[in-house]
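The passage that follows is intended for readers who have already worked through the single-chain material. We present the inputs for a multi-component assembly, then the predicted structure in tokenized form, and finally a short commentary. You are encouraged to pause after the input and sketch how you expect the pieces to fit together before reading on.
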Amino acid sequence: MLSGTPQLTRRDLLAMIGTLAGSAAMYQAMTTLGFAQESPYKGPLKLDGDPKGASVLILGAGLSGMVSAYELSKAGYRVQILEYRKKAGGRCWSLRGGDKYTELGGFEQECKFDKGLYLNPGPWRIPYHHHAVLDYCKRLGVRLEAFVQVNHNAYLHSAKAFGGKPQRFRQINSDFNGHVAELLSKVTRQGGLDQAVSKEDREKLLEALQSWGALDGNYAYAAGDRSSERRGFEIDPGGGQMPVPKPSQPIGLSDIVQSGLWSSLSIGNLYEYQTTMFQPIGGMDMIAQAFEREVGNLIHYNAKITEIDQDDNGVTVRYEDAQKGGEAQTATADWCICTVPFSVLSQVKTKVSSDMQAAIDNLPYAASIKVGLQFKRRFWEEDEHIYGGITFTDLPNTLISYPSTDYQSSGKGVLLGAYSWEAWAYEFTSLPPEERIKKALEYGAQIHPQYNDEFDNGMAVGWHRVPWTLGCYGEWTEEKRREHYRAASAIDGRIAMAGEHISYIPAWMEGALLSGLDATGRLHQRVVNG
Amino acid sequence: MLSGTPQLTRRDLLAMIGTLAGSAAMYQAMTTLGFAQESPYKGPLKLDGDPKGASVLILGAGLSGMVSAYELSKAGYRVQILEYRKKAGGRCWSLRGGDKYTELGGFEQECKFDKGLYLNPGPWRIPYHHHAVLDYCKRLGVRLEAFVQVNHNAYLHSAKAFGGKPQRFRQINSDFNGHVAELLSKVTRQGGLDQAVSKEDREKLLEALQSWGALDGNYAYAAGDRSSERRGFEIDPGGGQMPVPKPSQPIGLSDIVQSGLWSSLSIGNLYEYQTTMFQPIGGMDMIAQAFEREVGNLIHYNAKITEIDQDDNGVTVRYEDAQKGGEAQTATADWCICTVPFSVLSQVKTKVSSDMQAAIDNLPYAASIKVGLQFKRRFWEEDEHIYGGITFTDLPNTLISYPSTDYQSSGKGVLLGAYSWEAWAYEFTSLPPEERIKKALEYGAQIHPQYNDEFDNGMAVGWHRVPWTLGCYGEWTEEKRREHYRAASAIDGRIAMAGEHISYIPAWMEGALLSGLDATGRLHQRVVNG
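Having made your guess, compare it with the prediction:
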């Protein structure tokens, strides 16, 4: 900018645009200036151009397969879907009373939850910036409610800290912030930041630390109203002539840092877990069911794929009945979108380029387990005033998540009693399901002794033993992504891969949808442009 | 503890109790050892003993009056309630389409919200530790949903910072934490804490700061995946061959501290606003309606109290018809619970001790205003991906709160467009209601330019002009509380005061309920003990 030119701020510019062109234009300008929409999802897919009767065979009726089928059939394609299971949804799955599930190796479980209760063995929460998931929920009429990720009254627990006694999140959080603010205030006031930070900024920083850290007038984090207004009181304020409020005693810096409990403090600040998160009312598979209502007529269920072949003219897929076996059947189409997880696909004869085959063969899948526990009453609410949210522990169950729905309802309740990964997940699945549940109870009872009296029944799903996925999600390392992702996501002859594993958001439904939409869009371009 | 005695930890003790006496006993022990229940609310009131036909006259059918009536009539008292309005609930109030409201001075407003939409002019959220409110909701069948207080995708806004451009909460929050962690790490590593913190603790502190503040391997808070996983990306991760994710650029320390936006960062850490907060599904007055279903038959509506008299034998209250005026009527009883706000009561001739009269005359009431705005569409969700939660601003409207319900519903939406106090509240109410709404629109449009095109209609309630309260809540200073609280909360002859103002939780429904319960309990003791 030339010297002497009056500096036009972004605000001036916006005001000018607003005056000249009205507020709609101003909002457009704000967007252009970086206001919104970092998402690669740009709204409903537009598939312009005539598909000229082209057909697409979709393998797998999970979210990526169903969204592809939905968009392609709307655009005039002839679509069919082959699905291994007798229902749609893939990992978007909810277990309810009466459901049966048989894992690899033959262990069968029957779910005995009460009516209205469920476990989401797969995805269980939706970030506010998963725009594709939210948009399809809106368009397909899936109602959402808030999922509580951080609950200040839930616990942080370490078997090795505080004598194994769980601590309320609010206390560890307040005290960590308070000590950090006090330490940095002290240093600032003693001149320790004089080199690094300007005088004006130091003054504001002190003001900020005092406010943010609940420091008192002397920049100390100490027992009193200010700290208790964060961490809670020893005696809460009451009414009339009830006992007068009494502040609580903060935990010292050393106990806080040595406890390790700080490792769970920032989870709610992660982009993926920030407020506002959602869950569908009634279970995650409400999304699967909504898609199934749209494309269910295109799905061929119980189809176990045995071979995928292609040539210049089209794709041929051989499959057999997943329940009864028997003679191989054949499905053909001009094009194919394959959403079969690479963990399974690597065991199917597939005619693709060697680059694609290398991608298929080289993507490891994460092992994980979820254990759902039904209790005779919602003791976490009744006894401990924990409504939704998550308790974190360093025991092998890693967490306990309380239902974010039907608060204060009487009757039974189902909580997520374990969500474990890798080595701990394998430890769980080395046992039969009823023993896995016992383990989850044993760990959880260290936090909630009521477990012992109130347990009713449970379900344990280890994803590496789920026959139709053989793993939880495609676990790209940086190196594997560099080596194989481009090939994995390219249209290989007449076949495009889709699913959470063909995305930068593995394990999330958003990854599955965006991948399906992207594959669909590129396939369509190929078709209409010849 | 004697030297040589093996030290018994709390955990050992609990384990021992668990082994000897079972888990229920263990939980009792944990509670006793400080596990739960800081609240003065100890569950449903037990009023043992025979009231021998005693009668109680309750003044005001707000929550404190209705809970007193509910408990007293269950215990066998003869109860009647006098209520100024033609409906119950007091400040627990929701405005819906068709409702009319006339304020002091005569301005009348008719609410034109669409069916299903509402504004809570009074209380609008329930903390998880307001045990009395939650317990009555449970017992009276009021269904709750999560109220979102902190939304990482809502805005922090200052007209004086960032050219007036609102900033996403997640960005200011991540960057503030990051800079604080980086500064304190640097000092720690340079030896600046060597005197204050032990070596073992310094090592753990560094580890904690790196984790909590999203610092990189060099303890720096810098553009990259780690910071973007908190503050969000410039390009979000996508699927297939969508553009690859791109990290965003953090805001510098100086801009963060000078902006003042940090002043709203810790609100979600306050005990009163921590997760999980609630609201009744359908509007706050679902609680009032639930109580009214129980005690409505005891309420005499439209009763404007003109004098409260008492002698050794009982209480006599004179009142007239609040609508039609006319001749004074009289109600008598053995005892009285008066829940009339002191702001109103100070204008009623009341026979009480001089100490009580001093309390009545000396409690100032807070001025505040709420403005509800209906828009033609939920643009905050559709355009800006803000679902529930609150945007804070330094403009006189102070905040914008988005509805924590019916997420993604189509049709119109009502948001809270202003919630202002004292001087700013008086400024609003110096104008007629339609002008107050215009002001709220003018301020809000600086954050959401869509206001200009999408506004439909609004309601503005200034509490200091509400005829039945003449203020928002009893604003005890420390000095006033020392001087007057004991007298205000004492049973004065045959009269006990109750309401949020007779509590240590003024302005909250919990204060009203606890105060009513406490007065009821003490009155009952007086009755049964003669």
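Commentary: Residues 100-153+276-283+366-465 of chain A form a domain with the Polyamine Oxidase; Chain A, domain 2 fold (CATH 3.90.660.10). Residues 310 and 360 of chain A are 17 Å apart (CA to CA). How closely did your sketch match?
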